[in-house]
Amino acid sequence: MTEPQRYTANEILTVLSARQLRDGQVVFAGVGVPLLAATLAQRTRCPGLTILFEGGVIGAFVEPGKLPPSTNDQRCTKRANMVLGSAEVLLLLQRGYVDVGFMGGAQIDQYGNLNSSFIGDPAHPKTRLPGTGGGNDISSLANMIVAMKHEKRRFVEHVDFITSPGFIRGSDSRAKSGLPTGGMFRVVTELAVFSFEDEERRMKVAALNPGVTRDEVQDKTGFELIFDDDLAITEPPSEHELATLRLLDPERLFTA
Amino acid sequence: MNEGSVKPYLQLREELSRRDKSLREKVVTLEEAASFVQDGASVGIGGSTMSRTPMAMIWALIRARKKNLTCSRSIVSTEGDLLFGSGICDHMVTSWFAQGILWGLSKVMRHHVEKGSARYDEWSHMAVGMRFRAGAMGVPFMPIRSMLGSDVLKQRPEAKEIDCPFTGEKLLLVPALNPDVALIHVQRCDAYGNAQIDGLQFMDIDLAMAANRVILTTERIVSNDQIRRAPDETKIPFFCVDAVVEVPYGCAPHECYGAYEPMMQHMEAYVAQANGDPVGGFKDYLDRYVYGPKLWTEFLAMIGMDEVLDASRRGRSIYDD
Helix B55-63 to helix B78-85 angle, to the nearest 10 degrees? Predict the structure, then answer.
């Protein structure tokens, strides 16, 4: 990028993730950037966005400067329409009430499968990661937006372990596994916005972030990318988006 | 074929029929309550992440030097470190295990799982909930539509994929979880164990119904008249409950809805020390904060008046506007 940075990597990630949401949707958001991005969308273009948290919250309205440290904290319930049990809120996904599942990712592959469980062989793991939480349920049952950092070690051909399913091995393998609904819709990084092509269900670049080149994205990706024929260039974050975001997260808990 | 720990229905009923379900006062001390948990028991833990964690009860179990506990919880935070690191628990059943999203990975959990001294069985969050639900319902399993196609499922042969007898669709059956004992912290209950929970319930109601014994810790014990004034707030009925312990700030340094938020300075200091050195640093924390104090109130004093009061102000602020 030629001009001096007006925003951090996490800030553009959050702003562009927020732009994927539509007013009136019901979104199930994980902690961190998803929570922040959903709240940003709610405070800018989508006042009628209904945010669900896995702690058991419907219609969250998180307060600026009081971001919850997890989606199970009392701060998540502020001005909510309803609190309910954890199983009950997750069952809303299964029943089909959720338009968009929205979460972060540690490692993703070309079919949008996410790993947050193991690095290396699960029987003798090099690293035992925290695990799925609600991630597997959300990605099994809803259309997904994933927001994550773009690094070669995070964008791999095949994840070590499928914690949260994307399109599994591509084509119709997801439906054949017993997941006839949902699937990856968008992946957002500080470099680009990705969608998935209809046949093999492989990741493709839908739009480049401002100032980012095709080579740069490919270089930081561990598999060969498909570029959309109508490859777009994303509008940079507006002053309003950045100002609202910084108001929400003044301590930069999730946007450092 | 009895896969894993699913109890036959007659055994489940028989165990319950042996419990004293009468209306009686059940108030005991933390130490007495700890004696209700046998070595080798399966222990269901209420709350989730840093919320309504029955921390004082876990603290008492560690001090009582329990052995070989298998614990289950929706989502595990620093209490999981304490359970593994103290050696009282060598098997955790949950969906997520770290100190908190702000701090990345738990080096304590990693140390014990990666060297093989403790086991972490991973299920999806909903699967944990539906396992408690099945346990609460007195049925051996519940069908769910997640985990299918994932490697999480490949690690869990206890779950069974079936073709639905009605539709032919693929479903996953997750086995009932009926812990020997549940540890649940609530805002208030009476001496009989009628428990009222404010805010997020997590999986606690199913957990209470599923378990074969329930130990309640509570911010305060109120009269039965007080309970009867707002019976809609009662979430756990007395006949599920075997012991009641009054422990103000019983979730510290985690939060209790409407009472206090997490004590983040203590949490940050703990994480820095434990992740800095998951063996020596962790042991120093345990010696100082768990084995060291004579009483729970002494542990609270070590967290510090400033931090406890600030957490209380933030916690109660939920009712300010």
Answer: 10
pLDDT score recorded for residue A254: 85
Question: Does B101 sit within 8 Å of A70, measured CB to CB?
Answer: yes
What radius of gyration do chain B's Cα atoms show? 19
Which residues, given as ranges, of chain A have pLDDT below 70? 1-4
Residue B125 CA to residue A163 CA, distance in Å, equals 12
Instruction: Give the integer Cα–Cα distance in Å for A110 and A35.
Output: 25
Whether residue A48 contacts residue A69, with contact meaning beta carbons closer than 8 Å, is answered with: no
A130 and B149 within 8 Å at the Cβ level: the answer is: no
Output the DSSP codes for A132-197.
Answer: -TTHHHHHHHSEEEEE----TTTEESS-SS-SB-SSTTSTTHHHHTT--S-EEEEEE-SSEEEEE-
- State yes or no: cis peptide before B253, omega within 30 of 0: yes
Q: Tell me the residue length of chain A.
A: 256
Q: Which chain B residues contact residue A117 at CB under 8 A?
A: 122, 151-152
| Whether B248 contacts B214, CB under 8 Å | no
pTM of the model: 0.97
C-alpha B131/C-alpha B129 separation (Å) is: 5
Counting every residue, how long is chain B?
321
Q: b/e per residue, A124-133, with b = 16+ CB within 10 A?
A: ebeebbbbbb
The gap from C-alpha B80 to its chain's centroid, in whole angstroms, comes to 10
